[in-house]
Structure formats: C-alpha cells, structure tokens
Specification:
With 427 residues, the chain is an alpha+beta fold. The chain has 19 helices and ten strands. 47% of the residues lie in helices and 11% in strands.
Length: 427
C-alpha cells in the first residue's frame, strides 16, 4: 500500500456572522430594528444612542426629498393588546418566574392569538404548556394555543357549559367531524346522533382564531414602516423611522480608539461592530427607498384607487428594476407595513400574480380572490358551488382563465371551507 499526501483547493462560500446579521436586519420591521439597536448599545461599549428630536420627516418623490412636520401625520403610540395582557398578568400573578414565563408567551403571540415559538427556545415545552394554561385565567379563552386543536380544546376545557364528550371529539375526531362522518363518531363514542349534533353546534360557537382581537390592534396600534401620501397631484412616501435613536461613538471611549491609544486593539472589534451597524442600518434604509420608488411606479393605480386597481406584480420585476437579487426584495418586503389612503397593508400584499383573460388582458390574483368570495356568497347553502362549478363560472361568464385546482388553492388560502363543509348540516 502506498501512502501519499496531496494538497487540494476547494472554493466554498462562507457566510460570516455579520453578513447573516445584515440579511436579518433587512427583514426587521422598524420597531424590531429599534429594539435591535438598543440591544447593541448594551453589548457594545462604544455605542451611545441619542434620542430623536421628533421635528421633521423626509418625504421622497421622484428622487426629490422634502420635509414636513412630523406631528402632521404621526399619532401618539398607544399600548397594544399584548401590553394590556401583561398589565393584567402583573396584577393576577405574584411569582416572578410565572410573570417572566407569561410575558414571554404574550410577546410571542401572532395575530391569530397563537403562540409562536422562537427559533432559539427560551423555555422548555412543559413550561410553555404550564404558561398557556395559566394564561387562560386572564383570557380570552384559547389565547396562547399552538395550533387550532389546542385553541378549541382550551376553550372547551375552561368553559363550564361544555357538553360531555366535546373534548374527546375535538382531540380525536376533528377530521371526521369536518367530513361529516356522523355515524362513525357516534358509534365509536357510543352516543346518539342528537347528542353529537349538540356537540357539533357547541364547537361551532368556539373561536378557531382570535384574529378579531388582534386585527383591531393592527388597525389602531401597529406603527406603519412606510407612509404614502398624495400631495398636490403627486404620490410621495416617507419612512416612518423618526423614532429610531441616532447611533454615535460613546464620548467617554472616543480617545481609546485613536491611533496613539494603547487600548486601541481591545476596542478594535467593538469599532468594527459599530461601523457595521451604522452601515447596515443605512443600507437597509436605502434599499427600502429604492423598492418603494419602484412600487409606486408599478402600482400607481393601487395608490390612487385601492386594491380593486392593483396590477399583477412579482418580486423579480422589482428586483430587476432596482438591480438587486430577488431574495433582497423578498426580505425587505417581509414584515413591513405601508400606510395608504385605503388602509394599512403588509408590503407583501402589493405583489400579486396574474391570470389571463379571454380578451388577452390579465387580472391580478387579489381581484380574482375578491370575485371568488363574492360568488360564494351568492350560493345556496344547501347546495354550495363545487370548485369545478366556480372555475366554469370564471371561465365562461367572467372570461378569466382559471383551473379548478387554482380555485381550491385560493379558497384554502382564504380559509374558505370546501363545498362539502360549507353545506348546511342535515341529520
């Protein structure tokens, strides 16, 4: 056997920690960015933050910047539902560990009231389980659930009027219930169809999501990241980042980073982190501005007339126009809200795929979904439209080329049940 040593070269793309953090920064909302900046002040002694003066906000229009008084548009920030829940928790519970656990859960609730576990878990599963049950004492029932089944179970467990066997039906027979397999459920639980109907009607009163509670918050409390105005016949926009603190070098440590300082090597990493943070925040801001300029150009009709006038648009089209990667546009438009004359929407809502019409034109996915909802509202609930019937209506009556499978996809995206499940129950 002959042994030898060989030297080879491999080309690998290595993502540095700072590059990964810069990518994450693009996805942050303005409020999340503020929190991140304040966290950096705690870990980097060179960073000193100064609070904004709240004097003016920059507006952008066709590359021209103008300023306006910030008080003309910005309303006072109010506490949201999560803050209200936490105030109740501090009154109802006295153990520090319980309060810490419940604070973690409520500030990780999504807009449906469900608990979203962070990528790096802070608490064990059994601790989260305990916290969710403690949270039911504050309410509303079902809050903090991790999925639909748990949400329904929590409401059933903590409601005194819950009928017998309701928990069992929810835990073991939700699919059968949705598919109306009444005899199977009744036989296996040894109950009458009349009793099962009572359970079914009870479950119908439960809330699968608490989105109405959080929707109210989203409308009244969420701070938009971008504000679009229509002034003197021109569409302008501004970044609603007036409250972000300014990032400075801490005055006490400035002498230590000079060329003649013996401590310069100690502060080298901190200086690099400071410079990276300043550059990344500015790069994020400039990228948002470029994307918004392109969006206003592409979706001018939407900003003037609302969602009924929205044009089909893809992330790639915007990426090509501003000469960045499509993934950059995807990250920047994630978790950002834009305030318009027609309401506040997630920036991602302005991107919608298109469907062809028989006259050669195209129609946006948003418009098709709106038409789908309107058509389903007209159906006879004793004999609801099938997906095939709806597709035929769109193709022959509305002139929109769409398949049965696409109808089913849109229906599921809007949480509209199938025709079988929309049918009025008849025993």
């Amino acid at each position: 056997m002959h042994l030898s040593i060989k030297q080879t070269q491999d080309l690998n793309l290595v993502m540095t920690v700072q590059l990964r953090q810069a990518i994450e920064l693009l996805q942050y909302s303005t409020q999340e960015l503020e929190q991140y900046i304040r966290e950096q002040e705690l870990v980097n002694p060179l960073i000193e933050l100064s609070e904004p003066t709240f004097q003016e906000r920059a507006h952008f229009s066709q590359g021209v910047r103008r300023h306006t008084n910030i008080l003309e548009h910005v309303t006072k920030y109010e506490k949201n539902i999560r803050d209200d829940l936490f105030e109740e928790i501090k009154l109802a519970f006295h153990e520090d560990q319980d309060i810490k656990l419940l604070k973690h859960i409520i500030y990780h609730l999504d807009d449906n009231g469900y608990y979203e576990q962070p990528i790096t878990p802070t608490f064990k599963d059994d601790e989260i389980e305990k916290g969710i049950h403690l949270l039911q004492a504050i309410g509303p029932l079902g809050i903090g659930a991790r999925n639909l089944k748990e949400c329904l179970l929590l409401q059933t467990m903590y409601r005194e009027s819950s009928p017998a066997h309701a928990e069992t039906v929810i835990f073991s027979y939700l699919d059968e219930l949705a598919n109306k397999e009444w005899k199977k459920i009744a036989n296996e639980l040894n109950i009458s169809l009349c009793k099962l109907q009572e359970i079914y009607q009870f479950i119908q009163t439960l809330q699968p999501k608490l989105s109405s509670l959080f929707h109210q918050e989203a409308v009244h409390h969420n701070t938009p990241d971008i504000i679009v105005d229509y002034v003197d016949g021109t569409i302008t926009f501004s970044l609603n980042d007036y409250y972000l603190p300014k990032i400075n070098i801490h005055a006490d440590y400035a002498p230590y980073i000079t060329a003649n300082s013996s401590e310069k090597s100690y502060f080298k990493k901190y200086l690099s982190d400071y410079q990276w943070l300043v550059n990344s925040v500015e790069q994020r801001r400039n990228t948002i501005i470029k994307i918004m300029r392109a969006l206003i150009e592409k979706q001018k009709a939407f900003f003037l007339h609302g969602f009924d006038a929205i044009e089909p648009l893809t992330l790639r089209e915007i990426a090509e126009q501003i000469e960045v990667h499509e993934s950059t546009v995807s990250r920047v438009t994630t978790n950002k809200y834009v305030q318009t004359a027609y309401g506040t929407f997630e920036l991602r809502d302005l991107f919608t795929s298109k469907l062809q019409t028989t006259n050669g034109n195209s129609v946006s996915q948003v418009k098709v979904k709106s038409l789908l909802v309107d058509y389903i509202k007209t159906e006879n609930k004793k004999k609801p439209f099938s997906d095939q019937k709806i597709a035929e209506h769109f193709n022959t009556i509305l002139g929109i080329e769409i398949s049965r499978r696409t109808i089913a996809k849109y229906r599921e995206e809007m949480n509209i049940p199938s025709s079988t499940r929309r049918k009025v129950i008849q025993f």
